[in-house]
Amino acid sequence: MSIIGAPLTRVDGKLKVTGQAKYSAEFKPKNLAYAVIVQSTISAGRILVMDTAQAERAPGVITIMRPGKTPRLSQPEDRLSLLQDNEVHYNRQPIAVVVAGSSEQAHYAESLIRVRYEPSTPKLDFMAGFPSSYPGSHTGIPGDLSFGDVDGGLRQAEVKIDQIYTTPIQHHNPMEPHATIAEWDNGQLTVHDASQHISGVQESLAKAFGVSKDKVHVISWFVGGGFGCKGQVWSHVVLAAMAAKQANRPVKLVLERPQMFGPVGARPQTHQRVTLGATRDGKLTAIRHEVHAHTSEIEDYLESSAFPTRVMYSCPNVSTTHRLVPLNLGTPTYMRAPGVATGTYAVEVAMDELAYQLKMDPLELRLLNYTDIDPHSKIPFTEKNLKECYKRGAESFGWSKRNHEPRSMHDGPLLIGWGMATETYPGKNMPAKALVRIQPNGRVLVISGTQEIGTGMYTIMTQVAADVLGVSPESIEAKLGDTAYPEAPISAGSMSTASVGPAVQQAALAAREKLIQLALTDRQSSVYAEKKETIELKDGRIFSNSAAAKGEALSALLSRNQNQSIEGTADVKPQLDPKTSSCHSFGAVFAEVSVDPSLCIVRTRRIVAVFDVGKIMNEKLARSQFIGGIVWGTSLALFEDSYVDSRNGRIMNANLADYLVPVNADIGEIDVSAIDVPDLQLDSLGARGIGEIGITGTGAAIANAVFHATGKRVRDLPITVEKLL
Amino acid sequence: MNPFTYERSAEIESAVTVIARSHSAKFLAGGTNLVDLMKNGVEKPDCLVDINRLALSKIEWLPDGGLRLGALARNADTANHPLVRKNYPLLSRAILSGASPQLRNLATNGGNLLQRTRCPYFMDAGSPQCNKRVPGSGCGALEGFHRTHAIFGANDKCVATHPSDMCVALAALDAMIRVRGPQGERAIPIAEFHRLPGDTPEIDTNLRKDELILSIDLPQSPYAEHSCYLKVRDRASYEFALISAAVALDMRGQTIHNARIALGGVSHKPWRCPEAETILLQQEVSASMFERAAATALAHAQPLKQNAFKVELARRAIVHALNNAGGLA
């Protein structure tokens, strides 16, 4: 069996469960000081007076940074809160930083700081901001895109759905909060940062302090979950480096859980109007998807909810628009399947509503509108096996036994509901570099400046190199998370495997080529002067397949040749031409819920999902990713909701007791599988990435199941008791 | 967290003496609520008196047939004690529906009685308003987030709820709280232990500052066979109640000889429903009687904008629990 695809246990698993994996907050440079961020308690206005006198005198305090008493930056990013002025744009904005000899001392001093504000009226009413909303783009892709004639398509329609779907603000809550340790040494800045993008941090810090990139060294060996909130650089990273400069000591800054509800991103709230037109027999004639999403007063981030609508179904007339509504809240950002998680909820519930209006099975409606080509560009998909996903998922779930009528299925006193939805996420990759070094002892180093955010990057790099070099995973050491390594892209957008994987593969191939050359020209080698195409590498040995028994260990070959290391490097650019092929992953998700008819308690009992995501690189890691996505989809449907106080813009459930995510008891059986057909158009490994797709569609499948159980259509997430009473 | 001194008492008497010395001193038992609030900057005691070594952990029969639960017995040990399980299953289930196993292993019975509200305006020292946290600052929840707040006994000074599950069962079981102060011992009925907010929402209970809880005394109970604790919450575990209902029936055949109904998550204290109980007296068990009792229990509810649903949810929860306890479910 090939090592690629095998359910290899994560190579860093032991380090993680034994506490030996070092996360960013766990380094302890000599003379380390501790910083605590002081956050605003209003959402708009300016700081009139900040009284730090008492805090300055508190035990252990080294320095307090605040507006007017802080290092000036050469190019501070406007989107960050770096104490360069007195303005407040959102609640929990960093307004000062206390540095002390211990974390406790810093906290105590922080509690002694008194701030007087001149508040102005904050913009916090989402709907009231619609008239002055404006268009935007997401990762450079325009928010507005239409094709065909939507009005005409709607006039043609015999059946119409026109509904509004809303989703709440959600805050990222990775187990590891944001953490930065910064240290200056002779103009050289070293930063340990919990980051999904170390080279982004490097660039941002270099710019802020006006130094060249090589003066900034960023290290991030392990990240305890990111989910998008550690993709961009946020204020605390720069503040930690500023504090280290002002204190003239290494400084550690770790955000506390409540501090994460504001300055480090969130999924914005959305208001989505979806209009579907169809013929009586269920063919879509038009789709209109109009999205309003909030952003902040200081930066535009667009939740691209209508993007999936552009590729999901065969429909000649489609219009998608997005409008940004700036509010006095922290800037929202990418959160697992940005845009797609919220957008598929709206569109896939609308499709379910259409199915009910047509008295048609929801799966049949989707099959009827299936498309093998990208409906907008009319070019073929690189690989699309969604029909197979529907088929396998339906079979495994038992969909054919579903009674279409709402409130028709029971288990004792409980109402049972079955719902389904389509899942999708774009397949993408970015330029990445890697280095592979075969050492004289036969052990292999695989190096790339990518990040391990819990997804299993160390393991994937190991597998790819092991496959090319014919060595065991145990003889490979993967290294990442250091800007001294060859540059790799952000760990986001389900792109890492399809970007870094091919780079490692190419680097390993280059090393393999050099190794074989060495052996063929080494008179003492058993393969000396053999035909190159007969040479194989397997089990840490090199041999000719004409005489396999005669081979030798790689270590024997290298030690005989001046103990040299063999190195291969690669710099791989995306190979897909977006003009000729459209690349997207798809999947089908089926959910069963139970609802207590009197108390209206919803529980998910089982979820079956089948994914078409290209090559599965590691069956075990893939399962974890899919399951994690589905659990979060359940959370989107039933639990998460950041409550904003409408007077001061403060998130009032800013802790893990009040900000509800599902507990184990909320999650029933989850059955995930994949089609596993490589997509070799995207990259040489055929992997399309799996991180995001699990959350897409899941919210809709659960919402649709709740409708099937109760006959009640909830169009406002999360689905809580009061919406069903 | 503010600096504080720490003392440990080995004797009840010295604990009471030490606590009386300072206005803001607090007893430390499990610390599962107090320490959190100290970290949040909500509680700022200048002295913690650790009472974990006091001999108050026993669970034992009383001469009158009741059961004494030591104030320092852990919630988990109390809920799983064979005498509690057999004779007071309502209490056992109520305790086990709260918090998480880790918290129940640490939290004590006395501490559970003294849990402070989970109202976010109280818990968040960065919020400008909370009369409970800063008397006179106003109630943040009244015009803000109050989906989970009180529907009984609240006023415009405070709409917070008492978060305990255990106390709802104790209210239904007519527990007595035995306390010791400088003047000696006294017993406070559970119904008078917690207060409504009134003009002093900062005061949760009628326990005096220098009094130590010794035990929770349960009277002999005829309710072991017909009781139900039903908790409705947004997620399946580790979550406070939107609504909880503790009901207990003393049945003679199909006739209800005595009934107890208490609600959690609805008021500043565990909320007994005496009028609803009276309706059930000497009645045959029936679904329609239960509906009537539940409707009566909620007749005078005063919900706010976001928590109006709790009135109907509480009504249904009582019906559900009564059906269950009465053998109709």
Structure description:
- Chain A is 24% helix and 25% strand.
- A 7-stranded mixed β-sheet of chain A has the order 3-5-1-14-11-12-13, sandwiched between helices. Chain A has a 5-stranded mixed β-sheet with strand order 9-17-16-15-10, with helices on both faces. In chain A, strands 18-19-27-28-29 form a 5-stranded mixed β-sheet, sandwiched between helices.
- In chain A, strand 24 and strand 25 form a beta hairpin.
- In chain A, helix 10 packs parallel to helix 11.
- Chain A is globular and about 80 Å long.
- The two termini of chain A are 54 Å apart.
- The model of chain A has no long low-confidence stretch (mean pLDDT 97).
- In chain B, a hairpin with a 2-residue loop joins strand 6 and strand 7.
- The radius of gyration of chain B is 19 Å and the shape is globular.
- Chain B is α+β, with helices and mostly antiparallel strands and 329 residues long.
- Chain B has 13 helices and 12 strands.
- Classes of the chains: A alpha+beta (725), B alpha+beta (329).
